[in-house]
Specification:
mainly alpha; 9 helices; 55% helix
Length: 169
């Protein structure tokens, strides 16, 4: 027995409407009892979907590859390489402003993705913890925020950057 449409939507990281659409168009097939085999459906969905147009958890690897600047990921999303002239101009501007040149490096980011933004990961945790605190007044909210902020460890913040694809030492 497989998953219901809604359960499969949660598994896949998409809306139940998206699951209904791919079922209706035949991109994935349901079992005889109307349920969805997640392994089979994931294979069918991935085979019938352009990776550059994927969203959600199944596109995370594409996002990580993009953050690392791989040529394959850049080609998949149509990202153009940064011209050498632009990097030189930025370097000159930083030098004129007195920025140290030794050991400095550039990190050109891909188009915006919340999966690649460490602050989005921190905000997601912050919002969940504040909801859990169930603060109903301004005073309660500020107390909850003060208590919740203490729950962010240095290691966890480091992992937010690591998960977003930033180089960490």
């Amino acid at each position: 027995m497989g998953l219901s449409n809604r359960q499969y939507a949660v598994h896949r990281g998409v809306s139940h409407t998206a699951v209904a659409k791919v079922l209706a168009t035949g991109r994935i097939t349901a079992e005889a009892d109307g349920t969805i085999d997640p392994v089979k459906a994931d294979r069918q969905w991935d085979a019938a979907t352009d990776p550059a147009k994927q969203r959600g958890v199944h596109a995370l690897q594409l996002g990580v590859d993009t953050a690392r600047g791989t040529a394959v990921a850049k080609a998949a999303i149509g990202m153009k390489p940064v011209p050498q002239a632009a990097m030189t101009a930025v370097n000159e501007t930083l030098s004129e402003a007195g920025a140290p040149g030794d050991g400095a490096w550039f990190l050109f980011l891909p188009p915006y993705s919340p999966d690649l933004n460490p602050i989005e990961m921190a905000f997601a945790k912050l919002k969940a913890l504040i909801r859990k605190a169930a603060a109903r007044t301004c005073d309660q909210l500020w107390k909850a925020v003060g208590q919740v902020c203490d729950l962010f460890t240095e290691e966890e913040c480091y992992n937010f950057f690591k998960a977003a694809g930033y180089e960490t030492e």
